[in-house]
Amino acid sequence: GSRLRQEDFPPRIIEHPSDLIVSKGEPATLNCKAEGRPTPTIEWYKGGERVETDKDDPRSHRMLLPSGSLFFLRIVHGRKSRPDEGVYVCVARNYLGEAVSHNASLEV
């Protein structure tokens, strides 16, 4: 049933992402680890918008790693488009609630 099982607990972030300064075209990883039971799902947001990863679009250069970290195959940065620069947060959710990481800024 939907009764709360005692061993279930809401997510909490155990590893927060930290600020990164990266070179254009280089790979980069924003770390995030969360615990919870049931295992929380991890989503990344940048400037309040959900970050699309390879699961949403197979051609994406951003991958969600099994640990919950966000991996960039190469940082994309042009004169007109700077899709990777910005402030990121990682959000872990299960049915008991959600946990939001510290902000991490990615600068190119």
From TrEMBL:
Residues 11-107 form the Ig-like domain. GO terms for cellular component: axon; plasma membrane. GO terms for biological process: axon guidance; dendrite self-avoidance; homophilic cell adhesion via plasma membrane adhesion molecules. GO terms for molecular function: cell-cell adhesion mediator activity. Keywords: Immunoglobulin domain. SUPFAM superfamilies: Immunoglobulin. This is ROBO1 protein. It comes from Grallaria varia. The gene is Robo1_1.
